[in-house]
Amino acid sequence: MQSESCNPGGALDTRQAAQPPEAGGAQDYRTEIVSDLAEIAADTWDALVATDPDATPFLRHAFLHALHASGSACADTGWSPRYLTLWAPAVNGRPERLAGAMPLYAKAHSYGEYVFDWAWADAYARNGLEYYPKWLSAIPFSPVRGARLLAENTGARRLLLQLALALAAESGMSSLHVLFPNDTEADLMEQAGMMMRHGVQFHWTNAGYASFDDFLATLSQKKRKNIRAERRRVAEAGITFRHLRGAEIDDEAWRFFNRCYRQTYREHHSTPYLNLDFFRRIGATMPRHLLLVIAERAGHPIASSLLVYDDTPGISTLYGRYWGALEYHACLHFETAYYQPLEFCIRHGIGTFEGGAQGEHKMARGFLPVPTRSAHWLAHPAFADAVERFLAREREGIDAYLDELNERTPFAQRD
């Protein structure tokens, strides 16, 4: 490959030659770093997303652009977009084609990532070195597994990864991190020499349940009894629920949800990442992927949870995102953020419910542990060696933790 120029802080406009296995010969790509997703048409971006079976709604142009345009993930908040893109040349009168893309950010901190490297940054600082800015490929504020190397074929995917690693090495920045890639991409990254970090999430799988009671029947007697007791306490408090989908979520509903969302952060003495403008934007541009659960008491809304879903047959998934309440009621969180979404999955045939980051308590509600991976490259050799040793020890602990969790299944033991 030959590169005419490399300016990591701004635009990268080079000619790269690759020879994807699927192609009959060498393929010339123009590579460019895009700092504003508005420069790429939504249908152009989404056409590339649609080619990847592991793409999630969080990779859609509408979601990513809303993060940036609303000021939630932008340079002012420490997320400087630097999307790495591949463009195939115009052929036979057809225009240039987006052939690959990698969501990439120059990060000024480690907030909103859910794979914690604060200790690494602290070690750099104690040795007089700068850890920030760093390169990060992730969906901001979204610990969701999926594609990070969007590409039309394997050759373009490998080239994207090569370019990202070259960019990281040439930029002088401390590191490159790719969070929650799918298994195929994680394998490619490990083969390319990136260090792998392992984690655990908790997902629920729909086994074709006909009803919530049908699901409960598969759990152990104790778990089944506890869930029924939790749901009964909410019902006895006079709390009812509405499910709003897509265009049913009007501006009044968004304003109420935003109050609930901000209340959650207030209770944790932290600053919310997102804002009302972001919620309004995704409500207008990607309504078919949104579910808002609203809890009401005495005719007034008191709590809500926002979920994102993909109902594509075969890969249908519901993603738990945010929840908040303006009144405290025992077990209201479990009902609003877990049991109501589970009923939605059962009613609409959604295959998987990903409840978000961490949360061992989810197992008592029918969720099972699922391993996750992230990939890391550090420029400093001594720190890379130290982190690699740390990750090896950490993985031993994660493997033991998974073994322990798998022995504590919430489901009834069948002969």
From TrEMBL:
Record's compositionally biased regions (Low complexity): 16-25
InterPro entries attached to this UniProt entry: Acyl_CoA_acyltransferase, FemAB-like
PANTHER family in UniProt: ACYL-COA (PTHR47017:SF1)
Origin superkingdom: Bacteria
Full protein name: N-acetyltransferase
Region of interest (Disordered), residue spans: 1-25
